[in-house]
Design a protein that fits this description.
single chain; 262 residues; mainly alpha; Vanadium-containing Chloroperoxidase, domain 1
Length: 262
């Protein structure tokens, strides 16, 4: 097991310092700026204390808190959507898909339902990936695993300071899909539990693909299954209109870049 400060802890540390600094550069209200600064300071302190004093088990799972906190804190940077950027993203979708609202209407209901269900379980995949490694006797890879996954997730949230757009479901007409009930459930979950703005790159794609790539070298069969799930999540992002195609491609590229780096 890696001793000292882990690379994944450094990544999270830098991200929350970045939030603190950018919060003072963006045109935020005083209350929101103060809240963002408070969240950043608390997160940095938690990371430092965990790295120095926490038992190994706590350090192995602390990145989950960093990802979750980093996600919800990122929305505090959102000021207003860039209509020009949204138009550019939608133009690429129309160029590649035709009419996104009807493009997948003929897909079989079981396929669409399965995609939506996998998409809804995306966050569970992050912890499951490390649990699989640990169960397979690879706890020594904890820092490498979390460096890829934390880097992928926080690397997707950080650009929200500059690239501010709404997700496709918020700006387009409703997608016509055969799995209406499951899609409505997934949409309701997205509206209730997410920050309701678009992340570029897609955190869903970057994180899930990062999980698969971080596992596949040590446990090829498990990694292959996770890779299939990551691909399903990427497809679901587009089919359900949760992300633009460009978001998905950028998320995949980010995950691959981190995998190569580490």
């Amino acid at each position: 097991m890696v001793h000292g400060v882990w690379t994944s802890e450094r990544i999270a540390f830098v991200y929350f310092v970045y939030l603190f600094v950018v919060g003072w550069l963006r045109p935020l209200g005083a209350a929101r700026r103060a809240l963002l600064a408070l969240v950043a300071v608390v997160a940095v302190a938690a990371i430092v204390v965990s790295a120095a004093l926490a038992p190994l088990l706590v350090r192995e799972w602390m990145p989950l808190a960093s990802i979750l906190g980093g996600y919800y804190a990122s929305v505090l940077l959102f000021v207003a959507p860039s209509i020009a950027t949204e138009s550019w993203l939608m133009a690429w979708d129309r160029r590649l898909l035709g009419d996104p609202a009807t493009r997948f209407a003929a897909w079989p209901r079981p396929v669409l339902g399965a995609l939506e269900i996998v998409y809804m379980g995306c966050f569970l995949l992050i912890g499951a990936g490390f649990a699989i490694l640990a169960a397979g006797g690879h706890r020594a890879l904890a820092d490498r695993y979390w460096s890829i996954v934390v880097g992928a997730e926080l690397g997707s949230f950080a650009p929200l300071a500059l690239v501010q757009t709404r997700p496709p479901w918020a700006v387009e007409r409703k997608a016509i899909l055969a799995d209406r009930s499951i899609h409505d459930l997934a949409t309701a979950m997205v509206q209730r539990f997410t920050i309701r703005v678009n992340t570029f790159p897609s955190g869903h794609v970057a994180g899930s693909l990062g999980v698969a790539l971080a596992v596949v070298g040590a446990m090829p069969w498990a990694g292959a299954i996770l890779l299939v799930l990551a691909i399903a999540i990427a497809v679901a992002c587009v089919v359900g209109r949760y992300h633009y195609v460009v978001d998905v491609v950028a998320g995949a590229l980010l995950a691959v870049a981190l995998w190569v780096l580490f």
